[in-house]
Amino acid sequence: MSQTVQLLPDINSDIAIPVWDTLASYCSSKNEEALHYLLSQLIRLTGASSGYWLGVTRVDSQHLNDPLNGWRPRKIVRLEPDGERDQHFRKIVARVNNSVDPSIAYHTQRTGRFRACSQSDITKVTGTGEHFQTKQDMFNVSDALFITTPIGDDIESYIVLERHLPAGIFSREQLADAAHVLRGLKWFQRRLILSYGIHLPSQPLTPTERRVLHQLLTDKSEAQIATHLQQKVSTTHSYVTAIFRKFGVRGRAGLTALWLGNDQ
After folding, report:
1. Are the beta carbons of 85 and 98 closer than 8 angstroms?
2. Are 189 and 164 in contact, with CB atoms under 8 Å apart?
3. Quick check: 177 pLDDT over 90?
4. Are 155 and 57 in contact (CB under 8 A)?
5. Worst-scoring range by mean pLDDT, 97-106, 110-119, 120-129?
6. Rounded to whole angstroms, how far apart are CA atoms 164 and 114?
7. Which residues pair with residue 98 across a beta bridge?
8. d(Cα 136, Cα 126) in Å, to the nearest integer?
9. Which long-range contacts (CB under 8 A, 24 or more apart) does 73-79 make?
10. Cα–Cα distance for residue pair 122/77, rounded to 1 Å
């Protein structure tokens, strides 16, 4: 009796594989470049106009009257810098304790699991709140995709893709494609959280500390890092000590283990 070999589907045709492979080739000191690559690929895949990454933490889970259940944004990184959008974002954050747009509260009521949704779908549930109305009126945003990955009990990572008028809303297939790519990238989004120090409760990394951190994740010595950053060796050592203290590690081996996910 002849037998046939059962062939696997062609996994190389999976839209996520090239993105995953390319991201894996970026070293830890190139997180920002890797993020820009990821956003640009998701924009191409979904026909979006722009995109950004948002890291959020839960700063107070015990405050029963908090409309956002203690969640607050800590860092936003756009593919294309936009000062006006960032200023609007800061105003929204500053007003959280007084009033919350229902479309923002929608996200914080569903934390703790990987999820993907569109602004157009959220609006069907919450109505068009002031936040999204402003995005439409001031920034010509017609729709947005939100793909959210929990990194820990009190940390979440958002990838947001936007379409600008006159383009219409995203399709269900485009939402599914973006979610498929990001479902396998929790490791990378965890690295982003660490890179920006978002998991640190009260002492996020300064810009200079981030530059030193990126070099610590290479094979450079402290003296070589000082030369690369045009610092005195003693200055670099002070930054290194502060970084280790903030991350709760004793040295570079502990820092590397944290980056590799071996911090338990």
Report:
1. no
2. no
3. yes
4. yes
5. 97-106
6. 26
7. none
8. 16
9. 74/196, 74/198, 74/204, 75/196, 75/198, 75/204, 76/52, 77/32, 77/35, 77/52, 77/53, 77/196, 78/50, 78/51, 78/52, 79/36, 79/39, 79/40, 79/43, 79/50, 79/51, 79/52
10. 23
The residues pairing with 159 across neighbouring beta strands, listed in sequence order, are: 53, 147
Angle formed by the axes of helices 222-229 and 233-247, to 10°? Answer: 110
Structural domains for the chain:
12-193 (3.30.450.80), 207-259 (1.10.10.10)
The answer to whether the CB of 77 falls within 8 A of the CB of 35 is yes
Token pair of 23 as six digits: 């991201």
Q: Which helix (H) or strand (E) element contains residue 52?
A: strand 50-58
> Going by DSSP bridges, is the β-strand pair 115-118/50-58 parallel, antiparallel, or unpaired?
unpaired
The string of pLDDT tens digits covering residues 230-261 is 999 999 999 999 999 888 888 998 888 777 66
Give the Cα separation of 216 and 239 in Å (integer): 11
Q: How far apart are CA 180 and CA 196, in angstroms?
A: 25
